[in-house]
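Today's session is about reading a structure prediction critically. Students often jump straight to the picture, but the first step is always the sequence itself: look for stretches that repeat, for charged clusters, for runs of hydrophobic residues. Only then move on to the predicted structure, which in these notes is written as discrete structure tokens rather than atom positions. Here is the chain we will use throughout the hour.
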Amino acid sequence: MKAIANRGIFEMAEHCRLDAVDMILPLLRRTASDPRPVVVMTCGLSGAGKSTLAKGIIDRLPHLTRLSIDAIIFERHGLYAINYPADEYAAHQAEALKYLTDELGLLLRTERQDVVLDLSFWNREFPVRVQGDWFEKPAGEGEIVIKVT
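Below is the predicted structure for this chain, in token form.
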């Protein structure tokens, strides 16, 4: 695991993903000086451990809401190439991204809810697109980057 800026630097092996939850939990709490909602965002290749990490965070901090494109598609349409044809996947992704974006806005603006965004590598531009709309990187603070080695 690697943390950038004021957060320190950590390394973790692939088999230690759940240990990463213990390492980052203290960094995922609001403070009296900064009561803004916490947003944890995962991004990585398939099988890298994004959902394992996101679910581990939710298990330890159940007040956070997990938003996942894959979970939205599964809940609405079932399994890829089993419950719906493979050629419908792109349309389902677009639909799920719209829902996720709308839900994120609602959770952050209206409910002031802490969120875990469990995103895939294809969605790498998502943080840049929504950053100015709903959240910004606080001055003097860092972002946490999970790097599986």
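Discussion point for the tutorial: The longest strand covers residues 39-42.
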